[in-house]
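Internal tracking record. Fields below are filled automatically when a chain is submitted to the structure queue. Please do not edit lines marked as system-generated. If the sequence contains nonstandard residues, flag them in the REMARKS field before resubmitting.
Queue: standard
Priority: normal
Entity type: single polypeptide chain
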Amino acid sequence: MQPIRYVDALIAKYGAMGFPAYDWSRYDDAPFTPLRKPLAQCTISMLTSGGVSRCAMPPFDPEARNDLRLDTVEADAPSDDFQIHDSYYDHSDADHDLNCIFPIDRLREMAGDGEIGAVAPRLWSGFMGRIYKRQAVLQEKAPALARELKRDRVDLFVAIPA
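SYSTEM-GENERATED OUTPUT FOLLOWS
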């Protein structure tokens, strides 16, 4: 049995839909930064790229390309006050339980049980859709997000791709 050539399949699928070839990131080495304190003392934040927004916010464009929008989500936001707009994946399970793509309740439970120190005051949703302007993310948006995470004194950041 041959392995699934995932990247080739993605290139063919989205190329047929008119998307340009994706400029994949390649890293021969990735810096590893061990936690400086126990997880039970860490402040955690997270980001979903799954087209998740609060109901009072404008929905994400499910067909978006290069959508660099980044929404803040209050840590105490009720999990039944979200909408999901993304055509890139089947979110029917997440429509029933947001925690499939944005585990906000699980994160709060972990803080309540003492498994993590705290949930950061702000969580994040964004970078939704097919982003071909990688340099804008790498040089502008990601550093700006990192500055906000530092402001919130985040020790551990969890990225949840859609």
